[in-house]
Amino acid sequence: MIRVLLAEDQAMVRGALAALLALESDIEILGTSPDGESAWRALQQLTPDILLTDIEMPGLTGLELAQRVQRHALPVKVVILTTFARPGFLRRALDAGVRGYLLKDAPAEHLAEALRQVHRGGRAIDPQLAQDAWGEADPLTDRERQALRLAGEGLSAAEIAQRLNLSHGTVRNYLSEAIGKLGVGNRIEAYRLARQKGWL
């Protein structure tokens, strides 16, 4: 049996995916989580073979979850299922050790087969996205990305500094660097462009 933990913040999608996968004779859904933090706790309690996760979730994104799995060397393979066909997301996912990256608009039967492939030790990556991913490299550092994401949520530099336990000046430098690298006029434009490219 392939033991799967499902992390998806949209209740209807989460229920539909769980029901769909439960129809497969060789796949068992151990549990479902509505956000990244609860998925992280469930990972440690349930020890699934595969974590199937969305990217955009409250608290802890699917990419951050994958990075945490990698950092703690948990014996679980991560597969991302998302609406975001962005090469930047795929590159970051692969850097975080993700074994599968699939789009939600792919045919349903592809999902179960992809989980089997990953369980056997292979990879399951959307082919067109894989091709596009090797075009433009992500110029942002992790800290620039964190500061820019919070700026995009409307936080001031002082609030970002407090949230990240950094000095106000350091945050201003990170935001200036990000704006300069992306060749835009301000932090909001930088946030929008980085989101569009899949770098946030």
TrEMBL record:
<dbReference type="InterPro" id="IPR016032">
    <property type="entry name" value="Sig_transdc_resp-reg_C-effctor"/>
</dbReference>
<dbReference type="Pfam" id="PF00196">
    <property type="entry name" value="GerE"/>
</dbReference>
<dbReference type="GO" id="GO:0003677">
    <property type="term" value="F:DNA binding"/>
</dbReference>
<dbReference type="Pfam" id="PF00072">
    <property type="entry name" value="Response_reg"/>
</dbReference>
<dbReference type="InterPro" id="IPR039420">
    <property type="entry name" value="WalR-like"/>
</dbReference>
<feature type="modified residue" description="4-aspartylphosphate">
    <location>
        <position position="54"/>
    </location>
</feature>
<dbReference type="InterPro" id="IPR036388">
    <property type="entry name" value="WH-like_DNA-bd_sf"/>
</dbReference>
<protein>
    <submittedName>
        <fullName>Two-component system, NarL family, response regulator DesR</fullName>
    </submittedName>
</protein>
<feature type="domain" description="Response regulatory">
    <location>
        <begin position="3"/>
        <end position="119"/>
    </location>
</feature>
<dbReference type="InterPro" id="IPR001789">
    <property type="entry name" value="Sig_transdc_resp-reg_receiver"/>
</dbReference>
<feature type="domain" description="HTH luxR-type">
    <location>
        <begin position="133"/>
        <end position="198"/>
    </location>
</feature>
<keyword id="KW-0238">DNA-binding</keyword>
<keyword id="KW-0597">Phosphoprotein</keyword>
<dbReference type="InterPro" id="IPR000792">
    <property type="entry name" value="Tscrpt_reg_LuxR_C"/>
</dbReference>
<dbReference type="InterPro" id="IPR011006">
    <property type="entry name" value="CheY-like_superfamily"/>
</dbReference>
<dbReference type="GO" id="GO:0000160">
    <property type="term" value="P:phosphorelay signal transduction system"/>
</dbReference>
<dbReference type="GO" id="GO:0006355">
    <property type="term" value="P:regulation of DNA-templated transcription"/>
</dbReference>
